[in-house]
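EI: anyone free to look at a 150-residue chain?
SC: sure, send it
EI:
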Amino acid sequence: MLPGRNRESSDRFGRFTEWVARKMGTPGFLFGLTAFCLAWIAYNSWGPEELRFDSAALGFTALTLILSLQASYAAPLILLAQNRQDDRDRVQIEQDRQRSERNLNDTEYLAREVVALRLAMKDMASKDFIRQELRGLLEELEKDKDDVQR
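SC: here you go
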């Protein structure tokens, strides 16, 4: 047997169980099952006696066995589908946790960068400060020029 073949077969069966679980939970399935049971009971109650195959006098034994068989297979198939969904949910939760952790780390990094920028901005000279300094230098140059001219 090929190494990937068993996994593929298992996955195909898992998809089948999910399909069955999804279909069994629909109104269409319930209406179909009800119609099947009503047709079965009607045929075996009022159909031609020589063609009846399940006796009403015996409580429709064959119908009871068929419904029991259907229920005995339905429960494990639904459980398998739920287990697959639980596995997917577990993986999704882990991915969400990792994504949240990355987002938190990114947010903390950006917060540190913003604080660093604010500190750097405090140390930077403003336009008004530069203008004031330039005016002061200009005044000193003019004084020096006046002193040289005298």
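EI: The two ends are 109 Å apart (CA to CA).
SC: 👍
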